[in-house]
Structure formats: structure tokens, C-alpha cells
Give the backbone structure.
Amino acid sequence: MSPDDREAAPWEALGVLLARLHRVPVDALPGPVPPTRGPAKVAAALERLRAAPAPVATSPAARAVHRAAATLPAWARGAAPAPATDHLCHGDLHLGQLVGSPPTSPRADTAAADGWLLIDVDDLGRGDPAWDLARPAAWFATGLLDPDEWTRLLAAYRSAGGTAAGEGDDPWPRLDVPARALTVQSAASGLAKAAAAGRALEAAEQAMVDACARMTGVPTAPDTGLPASPPL
């Protein structure tokens, strides 16, 4: 697919396949299914940020990320047991997890998933399906995902029987906490990776850091302790 053709991106296929995955009876699968690692990943990313070199680990950007983490319930950052849930979850949802051939109409409804497969089961497990849907929700909330694309994904997911967004029109009562947690995770991981590589933050990483700053009311784009981005 051409990255310039955003209309053709298979958001409907992703929504339909995710809804199908969430409806799979966990107990019908062969062998035990491990718990998902959503909150544990948040905790691990924060720990990597703490272990980053001092200019980054002690920067205003890092402090903004840690303050945003502190606004989360303890269970959402791996500091307490998470509420019991028992759905089959993907654990690492994004468009790169789709392989196959696009359908004839990229705006089709249930048929949108024809020809597509959802891959990468490394993080598959039992858990709260809201964490899968919360990743693109976080991209939408931070401005990385176009509102139309988010609407296409959410509508296809609900039309295919997905329940992770709740029963009402507003999905945020279900998605808010995991979306904020995934924003914190992405920001912490971005700062740690950039520090290890000695580079400036990429645009998407900076957007997550900025979102953490907004979550806690600190100034936007706090100093990261990293090299400045090269001029465009």
C-alpha cells in the first residue's frame, strides 16, 4: 500500500478482525493462555526511562512522563493487581500486524476483512480487550491518527460485535485509562530508545511526550535532554 493513500489503509479490516479475536472463547483454545502484559509493559517502560542516562532520565520531559504515570490507577502502571478480565487479546495491535490482499472496496463493512489476516501472537493473552483498542485510541487522542480513521476503525469494530468500547456512544469511559497508560508507555519508551541511540525524538515519540505533559498541566514540549531535532 502507498503511504500516501490514507483512504486505502485497512482500518475496517483491523476493526473486524480485532472484534473476531475478542469473541474467541479463551477456554476453547488448546493449552493455557497467559495473562496479557499491558500494565507490566507500562512499568517496564518507566523503569527503562529511570535507567536512561542522566540528561534524559532527569529531564523535564522524563519528569512529565512520570507525573502522567502517577495520575493512573496503580493497576494500570503495574503497581497493583489488575481487575480480573478474561477475553482473548492481541497485545500489540497496529496496522503492521495485517497481512494479505486488500478487499475490492476498502470502505466495505463486514467484508472489509476479506483477504486479511491478523498476525503476531507473541503478546496474545487473557486480559481486558480495551487495551487493544486503546492503542489506536491513544494515537487519535494525541493527534497521530486522523479522526476519520479512528471513526472507521471504531465503527467496524462495533459493527463486528466488538465490546471493548462499551455499550454507549462514548467509548472513553472504557478506553481512557488504558489509552493514557499506553501514552505513558510510548513516551517513556521513546525517550529511552532515543537516549540509547543518541538521537532526537521522532515526531510520533515527541507527540506522546507532549501528551504526557498536557495530562499533568506542564508546558508543552518539555526539554528532553536529547539532541535537538535537525532543521527541516
The CA atoms of residues 48 and 198 lie 15 Å apart. Strands lie at 87-89, 98-100, 116-118, 125-127. The chain has a mean pLDDT of 90. The chain is about 45% helix and 5% strand.
